[in-house]
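Async update (no meeting this week)

Hi team, since we skipped the sync, here's where things stand on the single-chain job. The sequence we agreed to prioritize is pasted below, unchanged from the tracker. I ran it this morning and attached the output directly underneath so nobody has to dig for it. Comments welcome in thread, and please keep replies under the output.
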Amino acid sequence: MDVVGYGVGRLAIIPVRKEPVNTSEQITQLLFGDHYEILEVSKNEKWMFIRIHLDQTEGWIDATQHHEITVEYFELINHANFKITTDITSNILYRKSPLTILLGSIVPISGSELFKMEEQLAFNGESKSLGQKRDLEFIKEVALKYINSPFLPGGKSPFGIDSSGFVQMVFRVAGYSLPRDLRSLATAGKTVEDFNQHRLGDIALFKNTIGNIHHAGICLNDHKIIHVYGHVRVDQLSTYGIASSDTGKVTHGIDHIQRIIS
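Output:
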């Protein structure tokens, strides 16, 4: 499918839907600074079918929430080492108007002399360079910032998130790019063959009763896991799967563990 235009998220959250109607399933979200290609415009011109550059996820956004950019600026974003926010919320001044943005948003601030600022933006919150890779303790620190974030299908913010979105966003803030969907996430990195060798920062994948991967979480120390089950929470991890810290019952059956950071 040919590219017919380019855009970047300039709102805190933009739903990306499976079909071009407001009642359609949300498959993911754009956060501030996420950029994308436009592949199609609906006949009534109210919806745009996009491909998100980060993970190649495709879906529909409301045309009124689209912010157009040039192909030159799109390519510049691809190569610029912008800042990624590390606070749950941050305040920016965008085009002289205040805007609250969320953990994992990209702000177009770069130390590169080649970067020419095309937009008026003021930001003084906590952030790090997008391309800077951080260690396992930092991953734990970021993951814990999402504690009690409610489950939301297709969500990827502290105010609503799903299991694959949670894993993707924690690692993105830490400087690592991971897939959005569970099937691809299940093969990212290297498989940990021995369950007892899992460690902080590994990704645990879980299967349903027919053997399909349907859940993911991030391993912590002391056989614990942080994941999304109703909300982001910490539970026990065993060779059987996830045991609820409240009831002791196994809620998710383990399939395998992947290591992203060697």
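Quick observations from my side:
The chain has two domains: 1-132, 136-259.
Residues 6 and 37 are 5 Å apart (CA to CA).
Reply here if anything looks off.
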